[in-house]
Specification:
This protein is an alpha/beta fold and about 375 residues long. It has 8 helices and 11 strands.
Length: about 375
């Protein structure tokens, strides 16, 4: 994550400076001039660690500023090689922005601090340095560099002040070691901050994962609710019986009443039910007479259920008589006409109210 990357970069830069400060203190204690052979060896080692750019060659370099002068930088790349970067009046210092929808910032050259990770574009000079045309860095990287500068500069100042007060080489070395120990303590503090940040990032990721799981569970519940609402007018027949009547009669027989008693008890055990009552007649007699007879038969069944079983009227669909229409059997036979003199009673169940909803698992919260 971004915060971890910034802290790691901060640790690397401060570590490099912590090593450099004691070395500088030890060099200053050696007031006697070094011999010619040692100086030549040191020069060769420095040259081996420095990258040169061919004159006029265009090049792009990514690295961290390890040294800064008025018009010159030393940039160290990922391989550890140093490159001298010269600044001119035409060098542009801009933001390497991550958001393509806003304008990038422009910085002064004073923003080029030690510890800043930069991208340099330019061309080689006659001395092997890189003449910078454009330098880019992100606002986050600039914040890291400012944090490094605020921590390291006071330490360097204390080292210089201590060396000015102490005359002997032994005391100067002791002061440099003390400053190195202080830097070591700061590094341990930063390491602890980095570990804490990593733990917080892990906890934040777990929280985000739990929130996503909870959102998916809520989405599933919403979908199930929508499905039930969409089926609110959808009914299915749970039970269906037929009771028969004698010729030209709408009087319920004992057998018909027993069948109605059974289906009424079954209806009371259901949720979201309606009872549909439909009357029919055989082909005996005229069409209008049979239609009226079928309606009376349906009304007789409806009244029996309401009066004898307290079935609410709003639970029963208005009875309807089809007369001779929709016969079950052949009206030309006695047995067929007997089957057609009937009332059909059906229990209808609302699917939107009775469809089970699967319970979604609650999201478990995680705390560090």
């Amino acid at each position: 994550m971004r915060i971890t990357r910034r802290l790691n970069l901060l640790l690397v830069a401060i570590t490099a400076l912590a090593v450099a400060i004691p070395a500088a203190a030890q060099d200053k204690e050696r007031q006697a001039p070094a011999n010619t052979e040692n100086s030549a060896q040191a020069t060769n080692q420095n040259a081996a660690q420095t990258t040169r750019v061919a004159p006029g060659k265009k090049q792009k370099v990514n690295g961290v500023i390890v040294s800064r002068e008025a018009d010159k930088l030393v940039v160290r790349d990922i391989s550890g090689a140093d490159l001298v970067v010269n600044l001119t009046g035409s060098t542009k210092v801009t933001e390497r922005k991550g958001n393509p929808f806003r304008k990038g910032k422009t910085y002064p050259v004073t923003a080029l601090l030690r510890g800043l990770e930069i991208e340099v574009e330019g061309r080689g000079s006659d001395t092997g340095a890189l003449i910078a045309d454009r330098i880019k860095f992100s606002d986050d990287e600039y914040g890291v560099a400012r944090s490094i500068e605020s921590r390291v500069t006071p330490v360097e100042t204390r080292v210089t002040t201590t060396e000015g007060r102490v005359d002997t080489a032994e005391n100067r070395l002791s002061a440099a070691e003390q400053n190195a120990q202080r830097l070591s303590g700061q590094l341990e503090e930063l390491s602890a901050v980095a570990n804490t940040a990593k733990g917080g990032a892990k906890a934040a990721q777990e929280t985000a994962d739990n929130a996503l799981a909870a959102a998916k569970a809520v989405s599933a519940d919403v979908q199930a609710t929508n499905d039930r609402i969409s089926q609110i007018d959808n009914y299915e027949a749970r039970s269906n019986i037929a009771v028969n009547f004698k010729v030209n009669s709408f009087v319920l027989s004992p057998e018909a009443k027993a069948a109605l008693d059974e289906i009424a008890q079954q209806a009371k055990n259901e949720k979201g039910y309606l009872i549909q009552v439909t009357g029919f007649a055989s082909a005996d007699g005229g069409e209008l007479k049979n239609r009226a007879l079928s309606e009376r038969r349906a009304e007789a069944v409806r009244r029996y259920l309401a009066e004898n079983h307290d079935i609410p009227l709003h639970r029963m669909i208005n009875p309807f008589g089809f007369g001779e229409l929709k016969p079950l059997a052949d009206n030309t036979t006695r047995e067929g006409r007997q089957q057609n003199r009937r009332v059909e009673v059906a229990i209808l169940i609302n699917k939107g109210l009775t469809t089970p909803v699967s319970a979604s698992a609650p999201a478990q919260s995680s705390r560090n």
